Amino acid sequence: MNGQNRGSQQEQRKFVQLQSGISKLPDWIEKQVDKEAVDFADNFGKYLADQKYSTTQIRNIFGEIKRLQMEGKWSGEIETSLLLLKPKLAYSAKRQTKKDAEHAANDLKEFLCKGIDIVVNSDDKKRCFDNFASIYEAILAYHKAYSK
Residues near 79 by Cβ (< 8 Å), separated by ≥ 6? Predict the structure, then answer.
């Protein structure tokens, strides 16, 4: 999360919370989704809603993640499709017209790209992917709950 134009104390606090979540992402994906991960999803979902980041944008990526998850068994095609979410995330972030939503989109892109990298570099890709999908689903749910 790039930290550009994040001058207020509240914005800095949110930035630090997001960075903390990114640093813990390997444990949540490789080991298990715990209470701290759910709390992070709550804060991140609220942040995305506060920044007016579109539910449609979040759901588009989530739909693709769920589609891959429904395939069941991990395969090279699933890994390729997962990796190809990175350019979609970059495109989605660039399409944002409001500055706050653009920051939120870039933060989500950074978080998800890091998660994708953890999944594809893990020994147990299917289990890690399922944990990754669960974290993202929690972020989506909280975003929807906090959206006006």
Answer: 120, 125
